[in-house]
Design goal:
This protein is mostly beta strands. It has one domain (10-124). The chain contains no helices and nine strands. The strands form three sheets. A five-stranded antiparallel sheet has the order 1-2-5-6-9, with no helix packed on it. Strand 3 and strand 4 form a beta hairpin. 7% of the residues are buried.
Length: 130
């Protein structure tokens, strides 16, 4: 995917749009009824390739790999899930703001804005069906 020549993007024609990874792959799976019981374990892996961080393609965000896991217990209409996101506590930039990234005025509050991915995170989820 590249910018097509247009009145708005003449100087960027042929460049890759920002925040579009070279590769994006997701793989997830789970195993239920462990030992015949109401348990499930699962995991997911996301691979995100390098991305351009601005329209001019002068700044590159490095690719990253993130892994998540969960264990769940389910009985009747109730499910309780323990999630661990970003198992390896990988530090990564998930997004860049093309209007502010590369801004050279240090007094500008939003200069060089990136969104960092969440660190290792634990959560518990309770679901019920009616």
């Amino acid at each position: 995917m590249t910018f097509a020549p247009s009145a708005n993007f003449v100087q960027f024609a042929g460049n890759t749009p920002p925040n579009v990874p070279t590769v994006l792959t997701n793989l997830w799976g789970s195993y239920r009824n462990i030992g015949g019981g109401p348990m499930e374990i699962g995991g997911a892996v996301r691979v995100v390739g390098d991305r351009q961080a601005n329209n001019a393609n002068t700044i590159v965000l490095n690719g990253y790999t993130r892994a998540d896991a969960w264990v769940a217990w389910e009985r009747d209409r109730v499910r309780v899930t323990l999630n661990v996101d970003n198992l390896t506590d990988t530090a990564y930039a998930s997004w860049s703001d093309v209007f502010y990234l590369g801004h050279t005025d240090p007094s500008f509050f939003y200069a060089n804005t990136l969104m960092l991915g969440a660190p290792r995170t634990y959560s518990i989820m309770l679901q019920t069906r009616f």
